[in-house]
Amino acid sequence: MSLRTSRPVRAGQYLALLCYLVFLAFPFLWLISTAFTPAPELGSLHPTWIPENPTLDNFRQAFDEQPLLRAAANSLIAALSAGVIAVLIATPMAYVMARHRSRLSTAATGWVVVSQAFPFVLLIIPLFLVLKNLHLINTLWGLIMVYVVWALPFALWMLVGYVRAVPPELEEAAAVDGAGRLRTLVSVTAPLLAPGIVATALFAFITAWNEFFFALVLLKTPEKQTLPVVLTHFLGAEGASDLGPLAAAAFLATLPSLVLFAVIQRRITGGMLAGAVKS
């Protein structure tokens, strides 16, 4: 009886999951379709799901109209730098907060969570004034500092959970075997934290890669602008947009995040399984 009742429930769960996946994938699939659709078909009163005459003209036009490669390089530098710096700062802080619990560490963890609720508008004016005094306005380093500050609270919160998941008995056993504190952290704790560190770095990278508001305010010259800002240049006056090239450029801007996540996802899963075996 329970088997019969579980099958409809399971089918309903799979159906709900399928609907959710379709809901998530629909904008991206429509973006791909638009990127390969020629201009006459885009202006048709009856657009089709699949372009009748797929073309690469939208990609050629996108590269001709805007400096996408330079903007992508700026975004890559800012995102990679922000991810690496955020992880380097957050990892030792998370270890101390997880291993040495106190009222101060509990209050700090609460503040980390609360700080994520602050809207961008409340932060942009103080950040702008600070960067202006440091002569970092319209520089990638200034933007990287902002991305690190923005990603650090959540990165710290993530890594605290990963550190707490590592059994302290492993470190105690290493100490009994004669390993010092540094050797224990490098040889025992760090390999088990690798999945968490990779996941945190991936979060910081994707956040910085897709960020628009800070880059729009802090970067003024076209040579310094990031890819999300350059995408707005395809929008004309009164909301008119060059839809084909815009879709092509947006599709190319989405690819790095998808490829990076697809590659690192396997390593995250493998690292978690390895950590479970070691523990």
Can you give a write-up of this model?
With 279 residues, this protein is an all-alpha fold. The chain has helices spanning 2-35, 39-42, 57-65, 68-99, 103-115, 120-133, 140-165, 168-176, 181-210, 213-218, 227-231, 243-278. The longest helix has 36 residues, at 243-278. The chain starts with a helix and ends with a helix.
Quick structural summary:
This protein is 78% helix and 0% strand.
Please report which band the strand proportion falls in: under 5%, 5-15%, 15-25%, 25-35%, 35-45% or over 45%: under 5%
Query: What overall form do the CA principal axes indicate?
Result: globular
What structural category characterises the helix and strand content?
Answer: mainly alpha
| Largest sheet features | none
Low-confidence stretches: 271-279
Cα(first) to Cα(last) distance is: 40 Å
* Proportion in helices: over 70%
Number of distinct helices: 12
Topology readout:
Elements: H1 2-35, H2 39-42, H3 57-65, H4 68-99, H5 103-115, H6 120-133, H7 140-165, H8 168-176, H9 181-210, H10 213-218, H11 227-231, H12 243-278
Task: List the main descriptive attributes of the protein structure presented here.
mainly alpha; disordered C terminus; 78% helix; 12 helices; 279 residues
